Model the fold of this input.
Amino acid sequence: MKDILYIVVPCYNEEEVLPETSKSLGEKLKNLIDKDVINPKSRVLFVNDGSKDSTWKIIENLNKENEFFVGISLSRNRGHQNALLAGLEVAIEYADVTISIDADLQDDINAIDEMLSKYYDGCDVVYGVRSSRKKDSFFKRFTAECFYRFMKWLGVDTIFNHADYRLMSKKAVLGLKEFSEVNLFLRGMVPLVGFKSDEVYYERDKRFAGKSKYPFRKMLSFAIEGITSLSTKPIRYITLLGFLIFGISIGMLIYFLIRWAIGATVVGWASVACSVWAIGGLIMLALGVIGEYIGKIYLETKARPRFLIDKKLLDIKFDDI
Done:
C-alpha cells in the first residue's frame, strides 16, 4: 500500500481563500488516491495561527463535511514559521510524508505529483522552486532577488527562489525536530537536515484573493531573522571593518605627523566632524548587530515553547494507521 501524505497549510486570516483552497486541495488529494499514488488515509491539515477572522470556523466546517480535512488551532498567533513547524510535527505522527504549502495557493499544486515521484525514487526532501518571477512586480522581483543573494553572501544556505513549498519525508521531519532553537528560519534549517534532496520547478500564480501576509516590512524582518539565526558573518564583517578603520587611522596619523614635520599643518574642522560622525555611526551599527545576536541568545536561553496547540480536529487514532 502507498504511503500516507499530509498536506500542511498554515493559515492566518485566510477566510477569503480557504473555500477555494480546500476545494483545490481536496480534488488533488482525491485524484492522487484514485491513481493509487498515496494512501486513502492521506489528509489536508490546516493550521490556524491565531486568526482573528472566521478561519477556524471554516476549518471546523470543512472537517465536518469532508474526512479529507483536519486541523489544529494554536493558542495565539505565533507566526508563519512556528505554525508550519507545528503542522509538520503533528502531521508526522500520522503520515509517512508531508508537503507544506501556503493557503493562498500561489504555488502550483500540480507540482505535488512530481514531488511524490521524486519521493518514491528515494528523496527525503523535495524543494518547490519558482522557475521565474515574470508575474511579480518589478519591486517585488528586485527585493526578492536581493534577499536571496544577500542571504547567500552572508553564508545562509538557502535554495534560490524557494519559499516554504516542499516535501519532507518522515525521516526528514524527525531530523528537523532535533533542531531545538526558538528563532525559526525553516528555509535555512531544512537544508541543514541533509538527506537526499531534489528540486521541482513550477510557475507561481498571483494571489487570487485576500492580502499578502508578507509586505516589505515583514520581508525585511524575515531576512534579519534568517541571517541572525543561521550566520555569524555580520559580526565577522564588523571585526574586519574595525581592522580596516584602524589601519586607515594609522595611515592618517602618519600623514598628519609628516604634515606637522614639514610645517604644513592646517586646521580642518570639516574632516574632524566627518570622522567623528562616521566613527560614531559605525559604532552604533556594530552595537545594533551585536544586540540582535544577544537578543537571540536571550530568547534561546529562556527555552520557551515555540507554539501551544489549543484545539485539534484529528479524529484519527493511531491504531487506525
